[in-house]
Design a protein that fits this description.
- This protein has about 90 residues and is mainly α.
- The protein has two helices and no strands.
- Helix 1 runs antiparallel to helix 2.
């Protein structure tokens, strides 16, 4: 690729980076929260137990983080494919 990437390509790359980084931060935060719950004293788990509610919150946060990472990877792949296809669309004059 000899041309500089356009604004749309840079925006897609930035979006992919933000999604992957944000998802990674959410996932790491959920992991730390789950680890703190696991390190605390074990009590009998009931439906309304505070640790069970926190665990479910962290699990949801973890799933959201993984979904953001997956979306970022998809956006990155789309950006790569668009950048790869762009030079082929223009045929050089003979």
């Amino acid at each position: 690729m000899t041309e500089r990437p356009g604004a749309a390509a840079r925006l897609l790359d930035a979006a992919a980076l933000v999604l992957v980084a944000g998802g990674g931060v959410l996932y790491a935060r959920a992991h730390a929260g789950m680890k703190s719950i696991a390190a605390s004293q074990i009590h009998v788990a009931t439906i309304d137990a505070p640790n069970l509610v926190r665990w479910n919150h962290y699990r949801t946060t973890s799933n959201a983080g993984l979904a953001l990472v997956a979306a970022g990877v998809v956006v990155g792949i789309v950006s790569y494919l668009r950048a790869r296809r762009a030079p082929d669309a223009v045929t050089p004059p003979a």
